[in-house]
Write a structure and sequence with these properties.
The chain is α+β, with helices and mostly antiparallel strands. It has three helices and two strands, in the order H-H-E-E-H.
Length: about 140
């Protein structure tokens, strides 16, 4: 399996991080995820609707090549590539607006903000432990 250079970039950057940075990244991962979810939920509440992401398969015309065997002027057989148009399926990621229950979203947001305060305290202790274990 071949890894795309763009997909390998986070792995390369992680390899460049110091042990302290990797440790801090591990202990703050949940906090970062929760922050992203809080921001998304706040945006949904302020807009009054959310977005649903889904994937759809679409078809497009692309140039493809057929191999054909022909006889040359000297009578020998030659394999040539003949261009033609053919249909190719690809997956497209699309977002569409969806209705939300604003009251339910607000309650969810309030719970996430409370949970974030608890998680921030635990993460701060974890960050401090990482700094002690891997001094700058």
């Amino acid at each position: 399996m071949r890894l795309s250079p763009l997909l390998a970039l986070p792995l390369i950057l992680a390899a460049c991080a110091t042990p302290q940075e990797r440790c801090i990244g591990r202990v703050t991962r949940d906090l970062d995820t929760l922050d992203r979810l809080i921001a998304e939920t706040r945006a949904n509440v302020s807009r009054g609707f959310g977005y649903e992401t889904y994937q759809t398969t679409r078809t497009r015309w692309v140039q493809c090549w057929d191999r054909d065997v022909v006889r040359g002027r000297d009578g020998r057989r030659e394999v040539i590539s003949v261009p033609r148009m053919c249909l190719d399926d690809y997956v497209d990621t699309v977002e569409r607006p969806v209705a939300i229950d604003i009251g339910s979203e607000q309650r969810k947001l309030d719970e996430m903000v409370k949970k974030r305060a608890e998680l921030a305290k635990r993460s701060a202790a974890g960050v401090q432990a990482c700094r002690v274990q891997y001094p700058g």
